[in-house]
Amino acid sequence: MGRPPAQDDRRDARGRSATGVLTAVGYPLLGAALLVVLWWLAIKLFVEPGSFLSAFAPDRGARALVDLVGDGTLNRHVIASLKRILVGLGIAAVIGIPFGLALGGLPVFSKTIGPVASFVRMVSPLSWTPLAIIWFGVGDQPVYFLIAIGAVWPIALSTSAGVAALDPQWLMLGRSLRASRVELLRTIVWPGIRADVLTGLRLALTTAWIILVPAEMLGVDSGLGYFILDSRDRFAYSDLVAAIVVIGALGFLLDRAAHYLLTPRRRTARRPARQRVTGPAEVALAEPGAREYRI
After folding, report:
1. Are 100 and 12 within one domain?
2. What is d(CA 175, CA 164) in angstroms, rounded to the nearest whole number?
3. pLDDT for 56-66, tens place per residue?
């Protein structure tokens, strides 16, 4: 006599759950363990005992990490870096979302400002470092500027792409109901582009984290980037290894959190997939006259 269907369903559900946990946790942990083993083998095989390079061994870095977390030294730098990320990303969002709306919905603005935006976007954010120091001096302000100028483009381009992909019939419907521009933005445009904005924010977070560490090497006295320079100057190479591990771990956790919180759940007020233009962000910058409707 076979099992009841309910028991089979529960068994299948448990199997899928176990497989999901293995995929989400087990494989990444296995990859991390393999990396540590290869790292340890490289130190043992290619570095002479007593050499300063032996300070980069994973066991010494792990001990340094425990000590730095235990005495609170590293905590202060982590908090400072996270604060700069939040402020810089907030500035980028405040600038990038309205800029993307204008770029995607105002043809005249796109024709005049789009080429300039393309030019500025291709300049590496760290290329602005000398000007940032001249304009803002030393301290947190240059770091905020460098993070914002690098993170603004994913947000702006994703927002512009969302506006370009809106179904113009929704906008015409809103106008036929005599909706104001603010009402159009609130009830039609924002629900239609929300998924694109969230995607842009996630991409911007990754960009901001990459920019943060070199930006914190510019005249600040806290942060993970500063701590790396300070460890180098003190010849505390095990502390430097600990800082690099923390940077990678925090970046991974931030990306996972952003993936969970900012991944679009659904898309509304969109054109059918077959009508979408390939690369709408590029169209918004390079060919702003391709759209025949306005917000």
Report:
1. no
2. 18
3. 788 888 888 89
